[in-house]
Amino acid sequence: MLSKRIIACLDVRAGKLAKSVRFVDTKDIGDPVAKAREYYEQGLDELVLYDITASSEGRGILLEVVARVAAQVFIPFSVGGGLRTVEDCRRVLLAGAEKVNVNTAAVQRPDLIAEAARAFGSQAVVLSMDVRRVPASAAIPSGYEIVTHGGRTPTGLDALAWARRGEALGSGEIVVNSIDADGTKQGYEIGLTRAVAEAVSIPVIASGGGGTPEHLYAALTEGKADAALVASMLHYGEYTVGEIKAYLAKRGLKVRRTT
Amino acid sequence: MLTIVDYQAGNPTSVRRALEALGLSARITADPEQVRRAGRIIFPGVGAAGAAMTVLRARGLDQALTEAFRAGTPILGICLGCQIVLTHSEEDDADCLNLIPGRTVRFRPADPALKIPHMGWNAVEATRPHPLLAHLRPGEQFYFVHSYYPQSERPEDIFAVCEHGVVFPAAIGRDNLFAVQFHAEKSGPVGLQLLKNFAEWKPC
After folding, report:
1. Ranges of each domain in chain A
2. Which residues lie across from A11 on neighbouring strands?
3. Which of B69, B87, B39, B19 has the alpha carbon at shortest distance from B176?
4. Would you tell me which residues 81-110 of chain A have a C-beta closer than 8 angstroms to some C-beta of chain B?
């Protein structure tokens, strides 16, 4: 039986990272490479690096971060943020990532999913979707709408229909990020996570709202997720990966223990 | 110096990075002569069996690997490299290297909750001792990504198993050849340990 995965999300702010290059070899909180290594040593299962500026000058810095992470973190990791073409994807994969995360660009041009899946295999293509709760309507029967640009831009797409389409186009996993829950630390949006998990047959990763190990437990059981994404819980040192896993194991979930 | 075979199936540099972290140097090559002369060969790979065999044959790497195997060179197959050392693959109905008798077959889970590909961390249980599995605790987890699995014919060629709807061989071997279905290079410290064991392995 597969273990439930804990995936840490690290934002790479290209501009700010450039300023903190002198901290590269320290445990500075601003250095994603040091954080990635720290979580790896704690027993992290997987990592996502998200380029939140995705500017052209930031791209070079991102690739350098990807290569440095790949040289010291020996678990799978994916890279997202601003990937618009198969060539963009190829560059981060060659730099050392296993998977790419596509989001806005896939909404704008869904064939990107199919092209990337053909070029690299479905296992390398993760569809990341930002979702906001809206009143159910004929266009959005599930009451969950896909949004882009950090939640500012509604798309008119129903989240469940988009998830099914993403699977049909060849995506190998889906990250379901609730914009409503994001940053609240009040728990993942269980109803949404479960609805997507029941709509597709590929693995679903819960994202947004995780604040305690109990929240992960709920997403991985009631929410039917295969993995849960965590960020601030780890970044601010509130929990270690080991503590979260110990809790999940105590509640009877299969997790990968490294100690 | 280890030799990593490049046959356009996935990105062989992730294996090289893992070896470098262990202080081991490796070269990546598609040259059959270098494979014949190699002291130690890693044969990784991600992708489809049929396309991989086409590339191996076109470059003469199928012959080079077979000769290296017969000459006693230690060889480690990883993922697709674990499947195409068998006789045949159901994927693309491809004839493979036939270094270990057996067939690669697709997962066909009766339980619809079991997803294909089998992707993620799963427990591996050794069924027979092997130097490459030294230092590994029972039930240690490794990272898998695959839709097909290696079904070797002879029970004595199976060294570890995993379960995903069906109990399947996760590590197979014969003489100087060992092959794992999981990605040792992406399986954290236990995966690095296996690579280290391979680098030190002296098959009799």
Report:
1. 5-250
2. A50
3. B69
4. 93-94, 96, 98
Q: Give the whole-angstrom CA distance, residue B21 versus residue B29.
A: 20
Q: Which of B67, B79, B156, B162 does the annotation list as catalytic?
A: B79
Nearest Cα neighbor of A101 from A76, A135, A68 is: A76
Q: How far is B125 from chain A (nearest CA, A)?
A: 12
pLDDT beneath 70: ranges in chain A: 14-30, 54-58
Nearest Cα to A193, choosing from A129, A138, A252? Answer: A129
Contact B120 A93 (CB under 8 A): no
Catalytic residue, chosen from B162, B185, B200, B204, is B185
CATH 3.40.50.880 given to domain B2-200:
yes
Side-chain half-sphere CA neighbours of A188 within 13 A:
35
Mean pLDDT (whole number) for B109-133: 93
Q: How many Cα atoms sit within 13 Å of B192 on the Cβ side?
A: 15
From residue B110, how far is each of A132, A191, A198, B148, B168 by CA, in Å?
35, 27, 18, 15, 15
Residues A256 and B190: their CA atoms lie apart, in Å, by 12
pLDDT in tens, B5-47: 999 887 889 999 999 999 999 999 999 999 999 999 999 988 8
Q: Is the peptide bond before B155 cis (omega within 30 degrees of 0)?
A: no
Distance CA A226, CA A127 (A): 15
Give me the architecture of the A5-250 domain, per CATH.
Alpha-Beta Barrel (3.20)
Domain boundaries, chain B: 2-200
- At B135, the pLDDT band (50, 70, 90 cuts) reads confident
Closest listed residue to residue A194, CA positions, set A233, A221, A213: A221
- Please give the backbone phi and psi of residue A49, each rounded to the nearest 5 degrees, phi first: -105, 125
Q: Which structure tokens are listed for B146?
A: 């695959």
Cβ neighbours of B167 (radius 10 Å) = 12
Contacts of A96 in chain B (CB under 8 A): 11, 13-14, 17
Contact A42/A241 with Cβ under 8 angstroms?
yes
What is the tens place of the pLDDT at every residue in A100-147?
A: 999 999 999 999 999 999 999 899 999 999 999 999 999 999 999 999
Chain A hits for B187, CB-CB cut-off 8 Å, are: 74-75
Candidates A130, A158, A182, A226; catalytic one: A130
